Each structure stands twice: as C-alpha cells, then as structure tokens.
From TrEMBL:
Residues 4-118 form the VOC domain. CDD domains: VOC (cd06587). The lineage of its organism: Bacteria, Bacillati, Actinomycetota, Actinomycetes, Kitasatosporales. Residues 219-239 are annotated as: Disordered. It comes from the Bacteria. It comes from Streptomyces clavifer. InterPro entries: Glyas_Bleomycin-R_OHBP_Dase, Glyoxalase_6, VOC_core. This is Catechol 2,3-dioxygenase-like lactoylglutathione lyase family enzyme.
Length: 239
C-alpha cells in the first residue's frame, strides 16, 4: 500500500512558539498530544498536518522548501501579510524583483515563505497553502510522484509539480541549478501507512524508486530515509 503524506515537519528552535505563529497565520487548530509533539491540523479531512519538532541547529542557509500562500484579492494578500507580521514574521529579501507581485516573509524561526498575489492561475485549484515550493531536480519530482501516487500536474523544462488526486496543496520542484545541500533540512516530509500495512515492503518499494535508507531511525521510531536529491524524510512505523 502506498505511503500517505502525513505531515510536513519543521525542525524548530522553539516548536510551541512556531506552532502558534503558523496556527495564527493559517487558522489551523492545534492537535491534542504529548508535549514533544506540537502539531496543527488542516481544517478539512484531507491534507497534511504540520508538526514542529525540536531542532537546535542555527539557520545558516535558505531552506530547500517553503510555503506559497494564496490570496483571493489584493486586500486579502495585504491582510495575510499584516497578520503574519503581527504574529512575529518579518519581510526578507531573497532576490525578488520590485515588479513581482508576491511578498516574501520569514517566520520567527527564519523559515522563508511567500504570500502570492491574487489571480495566480497555477495555484487556482489548491487552497490557502497553494504550494510547497522546493529546490530540486526533475528526478526527485518523478520520485515523489511515484512514492505518493500523486500525478504530475507540471513537467516542463525540468520543473515538476505533483498534486494529490483529492486536490489541495501542490508540491513543486524548480529544476536546476539546485543549490548544494548544507546540513539537515529544516523542513521534511513524514509519511505514514495504515497500521495493518507491511511497512518493510513499503520501505523496499521506496528504495526501488530511488530512496536510500539511513542508519538512523532503527528501532521503535520512524524509519529515516533520503530521497534522490538527498532530502531527509521519515516513514512512521505502526504504533
């Protein structure tokens, strides 16, 4: 059985504070759980949750992935930006041009995200989180399409994008040049299987598609793996 995208995980210096920021920006409610599992839930039954896990490594390079938030009007875009700034976000410069309509911000932990202008056709059929925009190769887009069973909705000039058959957030990869990887990613995917699924068989399937299993994560915790671009992801084992 194919893995499902269970969560987007943030390694955060202050997980609870970062969860409050994103809960306030997105309007997502926190989940009940143990103190070390700080999670916010999507508003509907489909989609992924966002988890905030302890990580003490200082941020030194631009993340390989960031959220693109959508807008329904110029006023809606301004309101999202204002809400993010009031919650502790800041404007940042990543080389965007003055004539570009999106607004680039960082959350209180320094993670970049964009608030996209209204009328973006590519994100018209998504939701508030229109895309998780990633720095990555065409190969890794193909890998994640096969791994999750999500069809390609864009494949041109080595840029790729996938989307769940149920709709919602797109995951995109910008193609070359891909910046060299420096340390562990702050954002990574967490996959899950139903409790009765054969997770060893799923691990072998992911490896056959191009993933690598690391030495970390053995035992009762999640299996830690790398995709073809060397990005970390985890596979939750049955509890």
């Amino acid at each position: 059985m194919t893995s499902q995208l269970f969560a987007i995980c943030f390694n955060a210096t202050r997980p609870s504070a970062l969860a409050r920021f994103w809960s306030g920006v997105l309007g997502w409610e926190p989940a009940d759980g143990p103190d070390d599992d700080v999670t916010i839930l999507p508003p509907g039954p489909t989609g992924f949750r966002i988890r905030f896990l302890p990580g003490q490594e200082p941020k030194s390079v631009q993340n390989r992935a960031h959220f693109d938030l959508t807008s329904t009007s110029p006023e809606d875009q301004q309101q999202t930006v204002a809400r993010a700034l009031a919650l502790g976000g800041v404007h940042i410069d990543v080389g965007q041009l003055p004539e570009e309509g999106h607004v680039v911000l960082a959350d209180p932990d320094g993670n970049e995200f964009c608030v996209i202008e209204a009328g973006n056709d590519f994100l018209a059929d998504t939701g508030f989180i229109g895309a998780l925009a990633c720095d990555g190769t065409q190969e890794v887009g193909y890998f994640w399409s096969a791994a999750l069973g999500w069809p390609l909705v864009w494949d041109q000039d080595q840029e790729t994008a996938i989307q769940s058959p149920n709709g919602g957030t797109k995951i995109t990869w910008g193609g070359p040049p891909v910046a060299p990887k420096s340390g562990a990613n702050r954002l990574y995917f967490e996959l899950a299987l139903p409790a009765d699924a054969d997770w060893e068989a799923e691990t072998h399937r992911l490896i056959s598609l191009g993933a690598t299993r690391t030495d970390a994560g053995d035992g009762d915790g999640p299996i830690l793996m790398l995709d073809p671009d060397g990005n970390e992801f985890s596979l939750r084992t049955p509890r």
